From TrEMBL:
InterPro entries: 2-isopropylmalate_synth_dimer, AIPM/Hcit_synth_CS, Aldolase_TIM, IPM_Synthase, LeuA-like_post-cat, LeuA_allosteric_dom_sf, LeuA_N_DRE-TIM, PYR_CT
Top-rank taxon: Bacteria
UniProt gene name: leuA
Protein name, as recorded: 2-isopropylmalate synthase
Subunit text: Homodimer.
Region called Regulatory domain, residue ranges: 440-557
GO cellular component: cytoplasm
CDD domains (alphabetical): DRE_TIM_LeuA
Catalytic activity as recorded in UniProt: 3-methyl-2-oxobutanoate + acetyl-CoA + H2O = (2S)-2-isopropylmalate + CoA + H(+)
Localization in the cell: Cytoplasm
Main location: cytoplasm
Domain Pyruvate carboxyltransferase: start-end pairs: 32-306
Residue positions binding Mg(2+): D41, H245, H247, N281
Similarity comment: Belongs to the alpha-IPM synthase/homocitrate synthase family. LeuA type 2 subfamily.
Length: 557
């Protein structure tokens, strides 16, 4: 790279002075009109453009998501494009409330072919573009300003004439001064006014003026100024829909679109997950879900975002990044301990509050709203903490480990993660749990049977009587205590010489993850001061308690 990039690159400096700009202090309160250009701008950027089968599949999904305006093709570009438009109409695939849009250059033959593709359409938007910026005037067209105006005017006039040959169709016209964002504002305004002079739109039959950031050359605030300036200066503002079409060359297309809406735009053109030329068009999924998570109905719906991703990946032949906003397969997942801790506490608080309001640390959207499961919210590796491990055990097996046991178990999981050097799946964690706490471990102490839990003896004392298998031997045991835990511990101490003092005992009913109905947890201290933990899981809470004692004893036996 150059040490003096100023010798090669010139900053984009907008000539617009807008000291009384209004957009910075506005808030978005409603969704714009959306136009998906996946099948046109997205498609033209693919190494292998979609065939009719893939286009139909994409189109059906766009309809299912709720798009009402879809740019379906550049019909004069190829036979596939032309045939696709015909297929939509001949197969009756355009719902009443959906309008298809097609794009053309400002060339008479291409315009004629474009209208030919639409014969028989109930309604359609025909979109004509030509570049207007100085660089393009000079390099691409070799034309002066007035010649570029003539190019646009001849094209939009041809559109009008072609449309008159098909009076049965309800036509809407759209014009894009391509490269708007680096066109002189007065020239962009002049050419759009001349286009409107031809079309004579009204408030009842508006035209669409689409102001693209064809190549993103400045920060979103600059684009917003351009849009606000244009909205203020265009005549017949009530007879035009101002549309924006931001590309993502600087990585700020979403911000550009949002700020352009603040600045007065009514409509946004873009693609799902930001496909499109170079770094892509603005990502409509992100824009829509940004609105949704501000409590605004976006007018689009993604009840299974995973299915949308799969369809888009199939049709485009391109992957959606795992970190893609809202849709990436990792974006609802925390691996790191402090994030996991906060999310787990957030879910607990959410359940307690029970008011339906989403206030979740680190998770801007409820994954369930877009069809994602909570299981993937927390995944465990060597960056994880006790909260994450406890979450996985709870989601997978329904066990709510007491805090001290979480600390103990997470230490073990940490060692395992370090030694395996990989993510630990729920089954790895459960295997470690079974091993660590001797769950169903016949090498240690196993409950063979016991007598109805316990019976009252003299005074408040309780008696535990049962048989315990230890090292392949069944041993009859009896113990007394002021409860089941102490009676069982006393039986173990008498029969096997294992002495444990209880620090904490907890139990709960199980809701999911296992057929068993109860879980019991024991935290004990040995005579040498070290702590051991036990867990018991059973249909019956008393049996779970006894098993928890045996589990703790196993750690010492
Ligand atoms: C920013 C955007 O995304 S715009 C959309 C771009 N999409 C596409 O280009 C995909 C579909 N395009 C195509 O299939 C082809 O380019 C076609 C069918 C439109 C035209 O193909 P060709 O006739 O072979 O022309 P080609 O693309 O090579 O060259 C463009 C010519 O059109 C001219 N041109 C470019 N844009 C426009 C325009 N909007 N209006 C009128 N003329 C234009 C160029 O100046 C050039 O003219 P020249 O040959 O006199 O120098
Ligand atoms: C045709 C226009 C709208 C375009 O695709 C662009 O400027 O990026």
């Amino acid at each position: 790279m150059l040490t003096n990039p100023e010798t090669k690159y010139r900053p984009f400096v907008s000539p617009i002075e807008l000291p009384d700009r209004k957009w910075p202090s506005r808030r978005l309160a409603k969704a714009p009109r959306w136009l998906s250009t996946d099948l046109r701008d997205g498609n033209q950027a693919l190494a292998n453009p979609m065939d009719v089968e893939r286009k139909l599949r994409f189109y059906d999904m766009l309809i299912a998501c709720g798009f009402k305006e879809i740019e379906v093709a550049f019909p004069s570009a190829s036979q596939i494009e032309f045939d696709f438009v015909r297929a939509l109409m001949e197969q009756g695939r355009i719902p009443e409330d959906v309008t298809i849009q097609v794009l053309t250059q400002s060339r008479a033959d291409l315009i004629a072919r474009t209208f030919e593709s639409l014969v028989g359409a109930r309604k359609a938007i025909v979109h004509l573009y030509n570049a207007t910026a100085p660089l393009f005037r000079r390099v691409v067209f070799g034309m002066e300003r007035h010649e570029i105006v003539d190019l646009a005017v001849s094209g939009v006039t041809a559109m009008l004439e072609e449309s008159r040959k098909q009076p049965g169709t309800d036509w809407t016209f759209e014009y894009s001064p391509e490269t708007f964002c680096f066109t002189e504002p007065d020239f962009a305004l002049e050419i759009c006014e001349r286009v409107l002079d031809v079309w004579q739109p009204t408030a009842e039959r508006p035209a669409i003026l689409n102001l693209p950031a064809t190549v993103e050359v400045a920060m979103p605030n600059v684009y917003a100024d351009q849009i606000e300036w244009f909205c203020r200066h265009i005549s017949r503002r009530d007879a035009v829909i101002i549309s924006v079409h931001p590309h993502n060359d600087r990585g700020t297309a979403v911000a550009s679109a949002e700020q352009a809406l603040l600045a007065g735009a009514d409509r946004v053109e873009g693609c799902l997950f930001g496909n499109g030329e170079r770094t892509g068009n603005v990502d409509l999924v992100t824009l829509a879900l940004n609105l949704y998570t501000q409590g605004i109905d976006p007018g689009l719906s993604f009840p299974s975002i995973r299915d949308v991703v799969k369809t888009v990946e199939y049709c485009n032949g391109l992957p959606v990044h795992p970190r893609h906003p809202y849709a990436g397969e990792l974006v609802h997942t925390a691996f790191s301990g402090s994030h996991q801790d906060a999310i787990r506490k957030g879910f607990a608080a959410h359940e307690r509050r029970n008011d339906g309001v989403w206030e979740m640390p680190y998770l801007p959207v409820d994954p369930a709203d877009i069809g994602e499961s909570y299981e993937a919210v927390i995944r465990v590796n060597s960056q994880s903490g006790k909260g994450g491990v406890a979450w996985v055990i709870e989601q997978d097996k329904g066990l709510k480990l007491p805090r001290a046991m979480q600390v103990d178990f997470s230490r073990r999981v940490q060692l395992l993660a370090d030694s395996t050097k990989r993510e630990l799946m729920a089954e790895d964690i459960w295997k470690e749990f079974v091993h660590a706490y001797h769950v169903d471990d016949i090498e240690s102490f196993e409950l063979v049977d016991y007598e109805g839990g316990f019976r009252r003896s003299v005074g408040a004392e309780r008696v535990f009587t049962g048989r315990i298998r230890h090292r392949e031997r069944d041993v009859a045991v009896t113990g007394r205590g002021n409860g089941l835990v102490s009676a069982t511990l006393s039986a173990i101490a008498d029969a096997f010489g294992v002495t444990l003092n209880v620090l904490d005992y907890q139990e709960h009913a199980l809701r999911r993850g296992t057929d068993a109905k109860a879980a019991a947890y024991l935290q004990c201290v040995r005579p040498d001061g070290t702590q051991v933990f036990g867990v018991g899981i059973d249909d019956d809470v008393a049996a779970a308690t006894v098993k928890a004692v045996l589990s703790a004893a196993s750690a010492s036996g």
